[in-house]
Amino acid sequence: MKQKNNLSPVIILGAGRSGTKFLRDILGTSSEVYVIPYDVGYVWRYRNEKKPHDELTPDMLDSSIIRYIRKTLPSLTKNYPKKPRARIFIEKSVPNTLRPDFVRAVYPEAKFIHLIRDGRSVTESAMRLWKTPPEKSYLLKKLRYLPLKNYPYAISYLFNQIINKITLGKSIPIWGPRYNGIHEDLKILPIETICARQWKKCVQNTLSQLKDLDRNKVIQVRYEDLMRDSNTLESICEFIEIKDKEDVIKNYEIKVNRTHSKKWIHSLDKNQITLINNEIQELNKAVGYS
Prior knowledge:
The chain has about 290 residues and is of the alpha/beta class. The protein has helices at about 20-25, 40-45, 65-75, 100-105, 120-130, 135-145, 150-165, 180-190, 190-210, 225-230, 230-240, 245-255, 265, 270-285; strands at about 10-15, 35, 90, 110-115, 220. A 5-stranded parallel β-sheet has the order 2-3-1-4-5, sandwiched between helices. Helix 5 crosses helix 9 and helix 11 (about 230-240) runs antiparallel to helix 12 (about 245-255). The chain starts with 7 loop residues before the first strand and ends with a helix.
């Protein structure tokens, strides 16, 4: 069996609520794949915890940070059963959509799966997450994966929630990736625009920073295609060279839920749709959504 620090990295990039968790977990049913079962932005932000946003750049790295991230990420699969044939580990922390160049500087050998979903669907779903605080049980489970060196991030996270409530008058914490300027936007913009802008920034940064990668290093897929049938998943398996793709596809057919398509049409009123379209319509069309 390969040592876990020799596993080949595959990074899933997608705005929050784009289906990255579903894709990660389905690929993780392969006997050749380990997955990190939670977003672990705190690992990527090691020694950059004080930055007020997630748009980290390669100049914020040094050799010790790179060494720490490369050692820590594979180790976070430690609670998984052993897989003697495992060759790959998959990671999908959503804030990485704002910093692909940073991720590439840490893992120049990585393959990337860019998962895009209709920005209106993402925004509607994200709005609900902003209004629903994470369950304590989820946070406690995630805490199991927090290395001691990353506890400054946890402290910083709690401090930021207190500051948000005092200075911004917010009763809910920031949910999802923090683009540069989100704290200022929160003072003046409605939640519809904030969530739409999160999607736009994530998609823009990922498209821009991956555009020069070789085709054997990046694949772009649409959530809607992934949910429609298994053809897209089969292409992804071939891209990351999973040999037991039949087992993965079998699990996909068991777990896929196709009932969430275009929920935004029924959940948002005209004013909300207008606010969202004002922010994302141009990019949404550019990536294939009318």
